[in-house]
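Recap quiz, item 2
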Amino acid sequence: MIAMSLWTLGIESTAHTLSFGLVDSNGTPYPAFSDTVRPDKGGIHPREAADHHKDIANSLFTSLLEKYELSPHDISAVSYSQGPGLGPCLRVGAAIARGISSRLDVPLIGVNHCVAHIEIGRQQCGCSDPVLLYVSGGNTQVIAHHEGRYRVLGETLDIGIGNMLDKFARAQGIPFPGGPVIEKLAAEWLETQHNPSLEGLELPFAVRGMDLAFSGVMTAAQRLIDNGADLGSVCWSLQEHAFAACVEIAERALSHTGKKELLLGGGVACNTRLRTMCEQMAEERESTSHAPPRMYCIDNGTMIALLGFIELQEGRTTSYPESGIDQYLRTDQTQVTWAV
Ligand code: AMP
Ligand code: MG
């Protein structure tokens, strides 16, 4: 039994995952309870994902309370992802948050999902003022703090890098999430090579100034497969090209801002090869590269609880009229009033 009785609950529901997480009265995070929708075929359908979240919510929340031996009355604030994300999925999370907050008569805090990735990363890795490489399913951004906001210095102009990996995988019959399987196939292929060319097969480069675009590299990778290339070598090459593009703009962001820490966040930051590439780049620049534990890279309720806790300490709560969702909420729309 955990003695503390003032917990902030965090609810994450931006896309494929519904997750409940907690931080205690010191802001210490506790692993979340999550469930991810895994369609039999095709991609994630927003309404089907929302139905999944609705169906699983009660048992997931009950499991969380049982695991930490808490009663609902131990919860002193409820935080939820207000955006960005898929509308139907966000609405489920917001409705659950409003319900719990009104039932328990505790504050409600709607938070920015992208900022939550940054804050859990800073907290876990002990970074003070990093450049963040945020690589997830729907988002790919390079972010840095400047004058009270997390500013987006570069981002994808089309699809998120995780989405690109998942789509390429799906075309090979690999179910969602495809990213981890691509990582495994690439690593297995590398094992079979005596003298591997690290660039692998030729693919277009995704860098567009400080921005990125991944659909061209995905189409080109598919064309290699269609022309008979080995799947493992294409997975390796796809990772190398896509990750190198992210690392390049992250390096430029470090250079422009003069910051010395790189922080990874988002589901694709689980990838060991990407972590290694970032470490190598940081080392060459006499900087450091950091990545939180994998359970805090993928979407999770704990990071939402942490940001809710931080914002509540700053005196911010969300009234009912303001508690609607915002599918297109931008990283730089949220005022960062706490110390960075
Ligand atoms: P998120 O949207 O932040 O929860 O991240 C989900 C995305 O991360 C999906 O697109 C996954 O395919 C991707 N992902 C998860 N693990 C890995 C991995 N080891 N390598 C590459 N992508 C990954
Ligand atoms: Mg995310």
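The mean pLDDT is 95.
The longest strand covers residues 75-83.
End of item.
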